[in-house]
Amino acid sequence: MDIFMTGGTGFVGTTLSEELARRGHRVTILTRPGEPLTHKGERPDISYLTGDPSQPEGWVDRAAECEVFINLAGASIFSRWNESRKRAIRESRLATTRNLVRAIERRKEKETTLISTSAVGYYGFHGDERLVESDPPGRDFLASVAADWEGAALEAAQYGARVVLCRFGIVLGKHGGALGQMLPLFRSWLGSPLGSGDQWFSWIHEKDLVNIYCHVLDHTELEGPINCASPDPVRNRELTRALGQALGKPLFLPPVPSFVLKLVLGEFGTVLLKGQRTYPEKLLQSGFQFTFPAIEEALRDIIP
What we know:
Elements: E1 2-6, H1 11-22, E2 26-31, E3 46-50, H2 60-63, E4 68-71, H3 83-105, E5 113-119, E6 130-131, H4 141-154, E7 162-168, E8 170-173, H5 177-187, E9 200-201, E10 203-205, H6 206-218, E11 224-228, E12 234-235, H7 236-247, H8 258-265, H9 267-274, E13 277-278, H10 281-285, H11 295-302
Parallel strand pairs: 1-2, 1-4, 2-3, 4-5, 5-7, 6-13, 7-11, 8-10
Antiparallel strand pairs: 9-12
Helix pairs in contact: 1-6, 3-4, 7-11, 8-9
């Protein structure tokens, strides 16, 4: 298949594009001017197209030649939020998605798939309640962003596209993501639970996430939202304990007080203190099998 990808040079996109090419697909990655090209010259089946994903000029025509669209673009949420940052988080997602839909509009009457990213933050905060794909959105900032993001992607369905919404849990991998920020603290004996430590942490190993995308391509009956998270979410204290054990760094510091997180990270601190307990119901019903369903084996694979 010819696949067009936004966000293809990021943490997830780099691994995903390589695996798709290994499986025989041809991948075109949209990159901003001056952005590092992770596979340049290494794989003839991965090419790059320079353009601004928030602007349709210069790349939409080329994108419209592809059968599959994978949308991974969006400003990182891992920072202290102010109004400017929140605007960037929202608009970076919506503008790119709307422009991809413009390309899909030009493919009327042609078989097309859009796999667009979302997040388990879609559900908002529900304590210990187990959340599946049919549950409604929350009302906080991240939930509203995810709902609007999904709504923009679903516009492609009116042009005949199959639309799949991948609601990511926290992605764990060797070369970035959440662990890239956590490991230095734990290696310095500074790891500890956040707040009460009772909050749920929906996570997924990067290899399982890549395999989900390949599964979606093979299973054309899958559409709409799918929870891309392990069937075994853990509480924050369980995650920190498992991470300490994987590193051989037992935990001895007290939990980070909630007020400190909120003071340092503002509204984003609340996200870290609450979390979601999600379950990948649709994936499991479709026959997908997780390679790393448990946090301990996932961390053993990731941490050398």
